[in-house]
Amino acid sequence: MPRKTLKCLFGVDEGSRANRKVVVGHRPCPSNEEIIPPKFCDNRIVSSKYTVWNFLPKNLFEQFRRIANFYFLIIFLVQVIVDTPTSPVTSGLPLFFVITVTAIKQGYEDWLRHKADNEVNKYKVTVLEDGKAIQSESEKIKVGDIVKVEENETFPCDLILLQSHRDDGTCFVTTASLDGESNHKTHYTVPNIGSDLESLTATIECEQPQSDLYKFVGRMDIYKDSQEPIFRSLGPENLLLKGATLKNTKVIYGVAVYTGMETKMALNYQGKSQKRSAVEKSINAFLLIYLFILVSKALVCTTLKYVWQSKPGQDEPWYNEKTQREKDTNLYLKMFTDFLSFMVLFNFIIPVSMYVTVEMQKFLGSFFIAWDKDFFDPEIKEGALVNTSDLNEELGQVEYVFTDKTGTLTQNNMEFIECCIDGFQYKHRDARDELDGFCDTDGPVNKVQQKAGREKEELFLRALCLCHTVQVKESAEQDGLTDQVDGSILDETPSPEERGFIASSPDEIALVKGAMRYGFTFLGLESKTLKILNRSKEVEMYELLHVLNFDPVRRRMSVIVRNGSGETVLYCKGADSSIFPRVKREEVERIRLHVERNATEGYRTLCVAYKRLSPEEYAQVDEDLKEARLALQDREEKLTAVYNQVETEMDLIGATAVEDRLQEEAAETMEALQGAGIKVWVLTGDKMETAKSTCYACRLFQRNTELLELTLRTLEARGRSREERLHELLLEYHKKAVQDAPPVKAGITRSWSGANHDYGFIIDGASLSLMLSSSSESKPSLYESLFLQICQNCTAVLCCRMAPLQKAQIVKMVKNSKGSPITLSIGDGANDVSMILEAHVGIGIKGKEGRQAVRNSDYAIPKLKHLKKLLLAHGHLYYVRIAHLVQYFFYKNLCFILPQFLYQFFCGYSQQPLYDAAYLTMYNICFTSMPILAYSLLEQHIGIEDLLDNATLYRDVAKNAMLQWLPFLYWTLLGVFQGLLFFFGVRYLFSNPALQDNGQVFGNWSYGTIVFTVLVFTVTLKLAMDTRHWTWINHFVIWGSLAFYVFFSFFWGGIIWPFIRHQRLYFVFANMLGSVSAWLVIILLILLSLLPEILLAVFRKNHGSHARQKKLVESSGGGLEFPGSSARPLLMRTFSDESHTVT
Amino acid sequence: MMASSYNAKEEDGHHSGSSSHGGPGAMKSKKPDNTAFKQQRLPAWQPILTAGTVLPAFFVIGLIFIPIGIGLFVTSNNIKEFEIDYTGVEVDSPCYNCAKNFSWNSTSSCLCSVNFTLDQPFESNVYMYYGLSNFYQNHRRYVKSRDDSQLNGVESNLRQPSKECEPYRTSEGLPIAPCGAIANSLFNDTLTLYYYPQNGTKLPVPLTKKGIAWWTDKHVKFRNPGGSANLSIAFQGTAKPVNWRNPVYQLDEDPENNGFINEDFIVWMRTAALPTFRKLYRIIQKKPNTTPTLSSGKYVLEITYNYPVLSFDGRKRMILSTISWMGGKNPFLGIAYITVGSICFFLGVVLLIIHHKYDTRSNSAEIPN
């Protein structure tokens, strides 16, 4: 895909134009300049890697880039060219098998990607051509086409809005799948186009495609009736982005300016790079060790061979003369050939089949994720989806989780929870209570039978109804499907008139709806008049005089209205911190308690205040505002100054609490992840306050968490330059969190008591880019490392106001930090795609915001809560399985080849194989492959329930614990020990080869067969001992393999095989079984090789099981006391009666 | 041996059918099947190795292995074996001259005889082996230098031996039968045994050459070509191996033991595992009466010395051995069994002590809680 993008870009760049020129509707314009229609990309999105044509060469190339595959190819070629002890088939067949299986797997996965691409590319769109609407497919859209998009459709490419169905030339879109903001944004048509698109002749000149979602510069030249063209400047407000969805507007027409891979959405993708798991890296490291062992073995043998041959009579005794060709060969060439032959002889030490088995394990194992019914979500009727099976085990290694907020942690549904009027609390409980308590007759009641005066109540509710920028959705028929913004509230509220609202912030809708619930209904804004329906079903009219817009610095907004009686009132709502200093102190005290409690409970709180303006005051304000608005310079500053001046000495009426509802079990999931030793970072494009409250609600931040904030707000706190302040803050936080903090031990679970100090870190996008840019200049990566160190000591980190690429930047930074921790990104929107692609593991949530994230993820799950099982159970098990698989493979091949190596010392270093070729080939393919495959698919060394109950078990395998050098050394030593035992055990038995009771002797093939039999039984039984979870499949496969070995050996030795040159094993196995001594030595050696394993298992289990039993007892004890276990605190908070008693 | 808990998790395999009842193709529900397999909830046996369960196993192993080991050791010790090196390296050895004056071209055989005394009588069947040392029958070039198809009597391979037989494939333009280095270096010393009883007359010990090769080799794997009674016709057009004195059809008078199915030849063709090896040469059948097969006393081994080994520092031996159910004399197995048995027993004791201590300690620690 990146290459494709580049090609697109180059194709344009060749024209060496800084701008692109688009002819609207492909109608030639009467301009003087000649326009050579430039070539643009088509509107195809390509995320697949291969096509039918390039699949074979490209796939083969990619596969042989793998060190192991390349190695086997070399071995195979050596076998073909050089006279080697084993035939090329022995390594060629498995290699062919590996390549084929992998190719099939990758082909299948690419086919899935093709299918997904097609879904997007074949999406039906309507294109206007010569005034006729023509149905077409999305991929056929060309730059310059006029495209018609209807409500709730997504834009198929980047469009310049030409015409909207709305009268005012606007349309609403949500860019949820682009940047995660689900509110409605207003876009404007290009002015003065006229209604007749057919006759529109115009060209658009705009900049070349670039990835910034919020930047667009262009110019439109409209030619009308052969007059001079009219110029219109185009900005981002005219550009509709691919991936955004049209809302609340019936139909729009737009002209395509960027298509396909040049759309801003596509440019915000990052190139798909093949993700490699940590296990694979370990495999490669082990592989190098074994390669070293292999080469040194071959070198030792070659050297010894020539030393040995230098003794007279050894090289070429009379009974064993060389062929003429051999005699003629150059000595050095012979040495080299010998070396290669030894390599081939010992090459089985690097298990070719391990790659097949690993591939198969991953491929088949991933089905268990897709099959898991716990991941099935009845709402969307889908389960988990596995896009890449390469990373199963990585799920068990995650150290950092980067999560999106909107739609991932939260449902993006705001709900009005409670309010506080004049210090009295009003809690909206559920529908039934509401009927009792809040009917239009009696007014709000609270359980403590205290309430504010009716006047205050109504004032508060009027303020809620008036102070906002909400619009009423006009469409008469209101179906639940389209109304996703407020759907969930509607079904709880038996409102007489169900109405939809549109607002830039979902909180506002929640507040308006909250007011509606208490009897005040906002009817809409008509020509500067706000209409509300009050409790007594009367319509009140207010003239809207001014809106003092919200901005993140003031963190409040106000409206100035004139009511029916001619009074002018300013209503203001905003964050507590920005309201409290502007109201009377005694009022604050009454409400502060509520606000603070609500905030810690994770609600978004807003305070509402008002101020009556005398006509004189208003006249002054009006004048000031108008003046500021007309200012040409520093308009923003001037406006702010006026705002600040007006919004003073207000009266605080009350506060509201709105909940952005968390995803199901979000807090438990986060808690489980933290319990598992995973650090959770929230990366969101959302506002800091919102994100912070979500973090509180998810228990990522807790009441005692000290927040370290590095945002524009803190950076601008004093009149210093931002850079200085940044430096200062970073050092301060670093001192606080890193230097002064006691060293954190990895094993300690976060305690509830909060005895040790918790830190939370907050950073916003602007500060981040400041930090990164300033660090690159002066002190490279100093800030970065400071930042990372601080973050490592924080329980949770919140990054807000992040652009999609910034999210990826953060992930990349952590990924490349010291110790290169394994990262996981989880998100649901297209704005998360880049971080999903960047992280080691990318998880997509099958949310509302389209399928971009899912398509680009490695795994997709319906809900956030599924992450817990995915990591704690599946990830842990997969890791253990594959780690064991890898270690076992190296082990079993070491003790397979070691006897063959030792045999060289007894056969004149002549590369004589100890085992028959059939055994050499079949050992890894048939005799020992199935049990380990079954193990690696079915093993549950700890039950799934236990894994889910004890998140700390996840730490047992953290940091790739089972593939560290120590376990590797253990397995290697075990392999060496057993290999030595097999060889020398049989060697001493063969000091007298007369092993049969009729005095007949055994030859070298019997020797090899005895060793091989011991080997097969030992490695299989070793696996059997490691198996903790014996399903019938394990039984079948383990005993079946052994039986198959015996059966095969009989069969292989039972027939004089036609077409085969050597009948080496003819009746060797049967004769072996006829010898009591062979039986005895086989039993003895098997037992002796397993003895250390048994001993270790006993000791390990002794400690392990005791510890685990204790753990289980504790957890089950805890479970009895608190049936909801870890969920309890959250539930307590949300539904408890505590809130009433506090007041 | 293992403490086990059979953990049959709830079996809900019977639900699996329900999803398919919805009608095939009508509506493909993506809901995963609720089968035990797919949900990874197959009933499973979960054995746990603990000291308590392994302990008895150790004792049992110890108790079984030690007697077996003792039995093996005694059996091996009871096997009578007599070995004599007749290479002729030392000047005073009887075959010194034969060894010294060996020449491939000499037509006459060199004879030498070695006297020896058996101190103990050999009861039951006695097996006579020849042993070679420093003879790399397991050298790769040597091992592969044969043509099994030719030896199986396949006509085409008789005329056209496999390339692997090089450089013993053709001789003077004719294909060699049997081809290859193994066949070419067939052990061709003739060993005969004479007994000197008390009264002084030299009695030949009857040596049976039947039954020294594997039955399957003799009857299936090795076959003479042509099937005709007259082997010399069957082998017409082939050359004898260069080092042989006689062609393959003159290995023995007995037609059942001639050509490729000559048992001495078959035994030789089964390449040895190690450079020092022995191969069965003759069997001295137990006499029907009660006298021992070989009574103690003086014997003489008469050797037709044809086989040179000095060039590669080799040794030749003649071994007389009785055989038990475990084969020839080999104390290794007995000792190994006794050792392993003792180790297991010892480990059992150690584990018992540890286990006992550990248990009491953990018990006492848990009581205050």
From TrEMBL, chain A:
UniProt domain P-type ATPase N-terminal: residue ranges: 37-91
GO molecular function annotations of the record: ATP binding; ATP hydrolysis activity; magnesium ion binding; phosphatidylserine floppase activity
GO biological process: phospholipid translocation
Membrane association type: Multi-pass membrane protein
EC number: 7.6.2.1
Keyword Cell cycle tagged: no
TM regions (residue ranges): 64-82, 285-308, 339-358, 968-990, 1005-1024, 1036-1060, 1066-1091
Alphabetized PROSITE patterns for the sequence: ATPASE_E1_E2 (PS00154)
GO cellular component terms, A-Z: early endosome; endoplasmic reticulum membrane; plasma membrane; recycling endosome
UniProtKB keywords: ATP-binding, Cell membrane, Endoplasmic reticulum, Endosome, Lipid transport, Magnesium, Membrane, Metal-binding, Nucleotide-binding, Phosphoprotein, Translocase, Transmembrane, Transmembrane helix, Transport
Entry binding sites for ATP: 404-406, 508, 550, 573, 604, 684-686, 801, 807, 831-832
Domain P-type ATPase C-terminal stretches: 854-1102
Cofactor: Mg(2+)
PANTHER family: PHOSPHOLIPID-TRANSPORTING ATPASE IG, PROBABLE PHOSPHOLIPID-TRANSPORTING ATPASE
Listed name of the protein: Phospholipid-transporting ATPase
Organism of origin: Oryzias melastigma
From TrEMBL, chain B:
Region (Disordered): 1-33
TM annotation in the entry: 48-74, 332-354
Main location: membrane
One Gene Ontology term from the biological process aspect of the record: phospholipid translocation
Subcellular location: Apical cell membrane; Cytoplasmic vesicle, Secretory vesicle membrane; Golgi apparatus; Membrane
A single Gene Ontology CC term: endoplasmic reticulum
UniProt keyword list: Cell membrane, Cytoplasmic vesicle, Disulfide bond, Glycoprotein, Golgi apparatus, Lipid transport, Membrane, Transmembrane, Transmembrane helix, Transport
A Pfam family matched in the record: CDC50
Membrane-topology descriptor: Multi-pass membrane protein
InterPro entries: CDC50/LEM3_fam
Family: Belongs to the CDC50/LEM3 family.
Protein's recorded name: Cell cycle control protein
Source organism (scientific name): Oryzias melastigma
Lineage, broadest ranks: Eukaryota, Metazoa, Chordata, Craniata, Vertebrata
